[in-house]
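With this grant's support, we have settled on a layout for protein records. An illustrative entry appears below exactly as we store it:
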Amino acid sequence: MLAGGYATRLRPLTITKPKPLLPVLGKPLISWIINNLVKNNVKEIIMALYHMADKIIEFLRNNYIIQFPIRYIIENRPLGDAGAIKYVSHVVDLKNPFIVVYGDVFSNVNLDDVIKFHLSHGNIATMVLTKVSDASRFGLVELKNDLVTKIIEKPSKRISGLVNAGIYVFEPEVLKLIPEGRSKLSIHVLPKLIEMKQLAGYIHKGLWSDIEELQDYFRINIELLRKVCKDTCIESNVDIGESVELIPPIYIGSSTALGSNTVIGPNVIIGSNTKLGRGVRIQNSILMNGVSIGDYSYISKSILSNNCYIGKWVRIDDWVIVGDGVTIHDEAYIAPHTAILPFKEISISIRREGEVIL
């Protein structure tokens, strides 16, 4: 698993936590990925880490128990995705076929089927593909008779089609194609495999999201919410006050309290240990763990990270992203598309759209 990136496009959320630890429907993204690996009979996990490696290791050691150990290999400098695989190969003897997944890709791909597909086709590499409505962000993949014949990097216009889903099965021979040092699969390896006619393409038709930007993160949370919690998912020890209205779909984490006359939903995810005051209105939003919202505050289509304190009568409008530990005082208005970096204290309204509070 490649999980060493900086995730700059997800700031301010990733200033204080690595992308694999961002919660998706109440649990870290990396948990969803590992659960899918275990479900598909993977017997060994090797993690290539760099940025905030200590936080990922600490989380997995303290919170994740599986039937086999996870090995952690920390890069001494950023090496790119291909470079990280090469670096791992110097530490671990990759003498059998191996799966490569990214720590920022959410999917429910059936890896057993992918491996069977790979073995039956006899190529040295298989790339999982998925169809998207806009391939301009990813690169359009052309496929013929299950072989990848061309990758058009980021087409200039919006076009639907197959894209690289960020999951591979490689034979050990692929390692010979990766140069030493910093290198990328898309530049240094995949073109060689296409030229050799050795890159097969498996089409995945289920859930998938490459979490590169804040909109991606928001979208996969809400998409999964609608799929898993078609009505309302409420964890243990949740205290719901009088005359609370819940408009599904909604997810509410454990040990959370909702004050009287609050209206929540639709499309709301609330983390654990969160407290909402009286008359709070939240819609189309994600609240992480330990958030406190004062009486009669309003939040729409925004993301609040861990341990934020929002005062009374606060209004937070669309696409406001709030980092860890932020305090917003009573009666403040936060204009759309505002980003507030962690541990800031906001005592006055922010009325101009698109502000970044450093």
